[in-house]
Write a structure and sequence with these properties.
Subcellular location: Secreted, Cell wall
Number of domains: 1
Protein name: Polygalacturonase
Family: Belongs to the glycosyl hydrolase 28 family.
Keywords: Cell wall, Cell wall biogenesis/degradation, Glycosidase, Hydrolase, Secreted
Organism: Aegilops tauschii subsp. strangulata
Largest sheet: 3 strands, parallel
Shape: globular
Strand content: over 45%
Length: about 60
Amino acid sequence: MQALRFYGSSNVRVTGISIINSPQCHLKFDSCQGVMVHNLTISSPENSPNTDGIHPCAM
């Protein structure tokens, strides 16, 4: 489960967002090309289980 996921996308630009208390992975890119991320804020409590930040995945 992720807060925001992009799959098979090209020229993705994510700018100026905040993700707070995502259930597991905050931001995931699967099989994407040309991804740019700027001014991103990720926040989760220290005791949250398995809350990863950004997952870039190639398939």
